[in-house]
Amino acid sequence: MKQPPSDVWLILSAWVYKSLIFTLPKEFRRHYAAEMTLVFRDCCRDAYRRAGFYGLIGELSSSVLDLIVNAAKERILILISDKFDRSFFLATAVLAVTAGIFAAFTDLHNNNTETPLLLILTFGFALGFVHPRVFWLSGSLIGLMMPAIHFIALVRGWRVEYPNDSSTPLWAFLTLLPALTSSITGAGFRLILKIIWGRLN
What we know:
Number of domains: 2
Number of strands: 0
Order of helices and strands: HHHHHHH
Largest sheet: none
Mean pLDDT: 82
Helix content: over 70%
């Protein structure tokens, strides 16, 4: 039988998982965060005993994915329960999709990456700042439009300014990183301004 992982790996895995629990709504975290963390640690130990380090990584990946999906579901349910929040949520989603499509079409008709990247960063930051509670939604939608439009361009045979093959839509998924980073930054910047404003008044 394999020995349990060192405390370092367990602590690191638990830290990654606990740092992502903040994505869950506050009320949900208050009731279930401690229990979820304990269950996760037990699952990590069992996974390591069964398959070693790769089992631990597999358990971490599976748990993180499950956590993100549940966090999105819980937050969407909270948002759509209020009429004003529902309207604001839908408006943010429409703006994010529109911004992502605009950046993607700019990329199709441009032979450099700077312009579409600047658009993605600007739109992501702006929407994260305007509606910080759903920064994850605006960032994801903006980033996902790039591979979607590239896939449509490939299937429909649209003329683009650079070589476009079957791997291009897959590479376009990388735009999720700057889109999410900029929306998180926008939300964080608004939070900092709110704290500063609160201290000044």
